[in-house]
Amino acid sequence: MRVAMIGTGYVGLVSGACFADFGHVVTCVDKDAAKIDRLNAGRMPIYEPGLEDLVAANVRDGRLSFALDGADAIRTADAVFIAVGTPSRRGDGHADLSYVYAAAEEIADLINGFTVIVTKSTVPVGTGDEIERIIRARRPDADFAVVSNPEFLREGAAIGDFKRPDRVVVGIEDERARPLMTELYRPLNLNETPILFTGRRTSELTKYAANAFLALKITFINEMADLCESLGADVQQVARGIGLDNRIGSKFLHAGPGYGGSCFPKDTLALVRTATDAGSPLRLIETTVEINDARKKAMADRVAAALGGTDLKGKTVALLGLTFKPNTDDMRDAPSLDVAPALMAMGATVQAFDPEGMHEAAKLMDGVVFRDGPYDAVEGADVVVIMTEWDQFRALDLDRIKLLLKQPVMVDLRNVYRPEDMKARGFHYSSIGRPESAR
Ligand code: UGA
């Protein structure tokens, strides 16, 4: 099948490369000439494990190409995917759909023969109806169906998530789209992946409901972690104890500094707005958003507490990890963006290291001193804080860290280490939701 993918952001690029790998002929289109040049030269605009090799292999085999002008690809496509950005609109938190609608207009002018237009971007309920209206108004003669096909990819694990998903959700209003969408995802038959056909609005809402539920689950365990600290219980054991109940499930029960990233913060906010506008407010999700925002800010106080107070003048804090999670260079809504400025406001000097995120971080974190490696970052600091659980921070040479620090204090916001081990090594160690260990 022939596929045109509008937008070579995270979702567009990963989906385009994976569809090509499934055997389809895919053209990824983007208005950003520099990005297209870079992709044509084999360089990726984002860090995602395995993506560069996947793109290279499919370009070499002639199934994947990149274009600034999408006209040819759209004219000949069986399916045109809209995978452009939907940032939070400034001021009201609603998803900004201007890129989606601009793509719809462009597609309207070009489609030729029966074409399925698929939204992969996360869009509010009813966007598919609006896309259909825009295309119909511009091209009353066009033969097309608008489909919702949300993505459930996790950054850092996106290729695996695309190729071995738990399910694929497809929202259709026109039955003619069903065989075409089934064919697109046919390689997933091998793994017997459920492909769930629903109405279009249902599919659009399913995406938001999934992210809101996961954000709620994380927030639940984060609050439970605070309670564990007050009661002297261990949140990791509580998480295991409840997670082994199949009705609850063990995933997304890692307590931490609060969720970040490009999806949960934006999507929960957009869903809250949609629900309020629809007169059916989601109070649980409203509260989730509030708790998470406050939590990210409160993490700086934990670091200050480990140093004995909120006056951090003359103190140096080493942050290990800046991105919102490992295996990405994405800094969007990362807890480090709240923690670093708050520590500096208390008078601290902040020195930091992240394996992939420093380039992005440098644009967003004024005043932070970036270091070349974890040991450089720790040198001369009063406390080391694990912000993101990159693999390389899981096996640090702790004796070396201890020598490099002015005093052996670690705040582990991802529960990477075990309190008893850290105590045995002579660290003053605090983590999330576990009994503290003093030296
Ligand atoms: C999330 C969803 O997991 C994907 O299914 C979805 O497709 C994607 O959003 C999206 O809407 O595009 P992502 O934002 O890449 O994916 O990252 P997650 O792995 O879900 O992590 C999100 C945040 O939650 C991170 O800050 C992570 O540290 C935090 N988290 C996650 C926890 O604090 N505890 C957990 O147990 C799990």
From TrEMBL:
Keywords: NAD, Oxidoreductase. The active site is at residue 263. NAD(+) binds at residues 30, 35, 86, 122, 155, 266, 332. It catalyses: UDP-alpha-D-glucose + 2 NAD(+) + H2O = UDP-alpha-D-glucuronate + 2 NADH + 3 H(+). This is UDP-glucose 6-dehydrogenase. Pathway: Nucleotide-sugar biosynthesis; UDP-alpha-D-glucuronate biosynthesis; UDP-alpha-D-glucuronate from UDP-alpha-D-glucose: step 1/1. NCBIfam families: NDP-sugDHase (TIGR03026). Belongs to the UDP-glucose/GDP-mannose dehydrogenase family. It comes from the Bacteria. The keyword Signal does not apply. Its EC number is 1.1.1.22.
